[in-house]
Amino acid sequence: MRNERGLKGIVFLAALALAGPVAAQGIEQTVGDYEDKFRQLDEVLPTANTYRNASGAPGHEYWQQKADYRIEARLDEEKRRLTGSETIRYTNNSPDSLPWLWLQLDQNIFRRDSIAELTDDFSGTASSTDEPARLSLRQLRQQQSMADNDYGYEIGAVTLGDGRALDHTIVGTMMRIDLPEGLAPGESIEFSIDWAFQITDQKAIGGRAGYEHFPEDPRSGGNDIFEIAQWFPRMVAYSDYEGWHNKEFLGSGEFTLEFGNYDVSLTVPDDHIVASTGMLQNPEEVLTAAQRQRLEQARTASEPVMVVTQAEAEANERSGASGTKTWRFAAQNVRDFSWASSRKFLWDAQGHQQPGAENETVMAMSFWPKEGGDLWAKYSTPAVIHTLKVYSRFSFDYPYPVAQSVNGPVGGMEYPMITFNGPRTELQDDGRRTYSLSEKLFLVGVVIHEVGHIYFPMTVNSDERQWTWMDEGLNSFLDSVAGYEWDPEMPWSGGIARDVIPYMVSNQQQPIMTQSDSVVNLGPNAYSKPSAALHILRDTVIGRERFDFAFREYARRWKFKRPTPADFFRTMEEASGTDLDWFWRGWFYTTDHVDISVDSVYRLRIDTEDPDIDLPRRRQELADEPERVGVRLNREQQVPIWVLENPGVTDFYDDNDQFTATPKDREDFESFLDNLEPWERTAFERAVREDANYYVLNFTSKGGLVMPIILGLTFEDGSIDRMVIPAEIWRRNPHEVSKLLVFPKGQILEQVVVDPDWETADADIENNYYPRRIIPSRIEAYQAEQSGSRVSRDLMNEAAQ
């Protein structure tokens, strides 16, 4: 049996360690077993200050750094190698003098000696029995690719603007640059880095970028799609709450970066089409006149317009490059930059209108190979536009001029203005391309999710390395909202309360506030559980109007800024006008789950104290009880009854039972009424006159996570009512509570169901019914499987064949 008390203590201490500065002394219960689920989070959350105030808004001295980039990069398609040179202008807006700068070298995660590679845990099971350990062919392929290639950065010159070399130290996926003198507050520095790296085979190595090879293409050697991300040394964030965010990149924890402006030149084979963060600066040099005309037409089109047609893409696949072209892009106020390049790309576009916004026309665009087929032609760009409409309603107008969906080897990943999305069609023998409902669901869902990330965290710049849920959880919540608004009949899953129950009752559950790289099950922990929590907060705890107002306030307060969990928690409380400390503590800091049981329901009628009314009632209640079994059997066997056969033994009590009203009973009743205060008598007589039905409902919280008690009430006349008892009913006893409900005389309660619509993630719905229901289930016949062991096989017969 799990030590619940010990586990909760460990979880709570871990939550404190993860949450930031904690008060030295906290309230502690030392006598009795009282547990306060409504204890305030003040001792857990960081103390408010001039940078982040107690309302959850940026303080009046809030600051953040700025990093601007000029980059020139060249793609060597044959060698799958990228070389580049960049100049960074870094502005220190902090109140601190900085003796050094830190940069991220994300490609170093693919080095054989990286911490991520050396600490990769073997997921199989090895034993001394005849049962072999299992190693997937994908894992073998990954190991072979790592052995055959030297991945990671080759760092060349690191120099100041005047050409002086800068001392630098590489620490795994980070690099420290030592400055000749401290960078004072308000000052800027400009420096340059030359670098190169081998692009990974994404299908072999995995990760968030890489190339995919198509050997079946007729062109000699085949064709590739390149999705390039985490590709240039980038400034590590420096913040008021952590200083340098120089945590090692281990794979799960993504990034937090500084906003800045980008001027990027990408030299690629001249038959490639490039999709990129930013606005294309030289379309006349890289696009045909017809393609430029189509792109302009798409700005006001009512449906997507093909900018690069399938015929043009297939012609590119057949022709082969004769040289190179340089595509130039510029992007303002973005925290990252990514791109994709291939001769296989088809390209469509459609303008999305945002009247009154900074970017009134947003170009929604998609890039895909012919393998994407009608699945991409029908759904990708429309899904981009749908996402912009829904997310803008919950936050702010889309802040950039383009939003793109690109098909390639990466299943789903996001960057400013561009996303990588995976599913494709299947080529059939007759040349048709078809797709399953699962692939359609995947494409629409992943486009919504990844484009949604351009809002969170690409604009609301949370720290993914520490708190994955702040972008993945918030985004999963909104993508499920957008999914149901796209088509509620599609079998969406993963984001609502009923989807997270298996995880919440498992022994692998961790608090949502666990640091990203320590999470065992990232999907349910960082995506599904926080999404479910926000749905419950919106639809059950706060209500949609106040939740939506508060959520928009959070998004707008922290647009182009760097929020922490405390900023989110405090803003949601402050803007909604709701104390939610109990909710954050239960859902985000513990591994409790929801399991509210309705244990008993009592129907009560008020005693009138009038013996001529109450005593006949009590007589009838006794008569309604089951007959004693011995008496019933005696009657059935016609056993003689003595008093019936001997009438002379009867007396007063044979005609008057214990419920006979006497004059004294009536005198006591009159005396009771006379001794009441006037207001007491008025209240009492009204209650007697109305003769209402009083019900006492007894509940227990078996999972530990307190929640509102949602009741579905069915009455004898067939009518149904819904009632929500706020979570605060548990504030004095988080384990068991009772609730008195009063209904008019004719309204007789027949059944009570807790959480009838499955909206609170209640783990055991069977104890939600009173009276208990017969549990519906299924049974399936099966045929026993034969043994697969070699001893059981007829090897003699097999050898003779």
From TrEMBL:
Keywords annotated in UniProt: Aminopeptidase, Hydrolase, Protease, Signal
Domain Peptidase M1 membrane alanine aminopeptidase per the UniProt entry, residue ranges: 388-587
GO molecular function annotations of the record: aminopeptidase activity
Organism of origin: Aurantiacibacter flavus
InterPro entries named among the record's database cross-references: Peptidase_M1_aminopeptidases, Peptidase_M1_dom, Peptidase_M4/M1_CTD_sf
The keyword Protease belongs to this UniProt entry's keyword annotation: yes
Signal peptide, first to last residue: 1-24
Phylogenetic classification of the source organism: Bacteria, Pseudomonadati, Pseudomonadota, Alphaproteobacteria, Sphingomonadales
Protein name: M1 family aminopeptidase
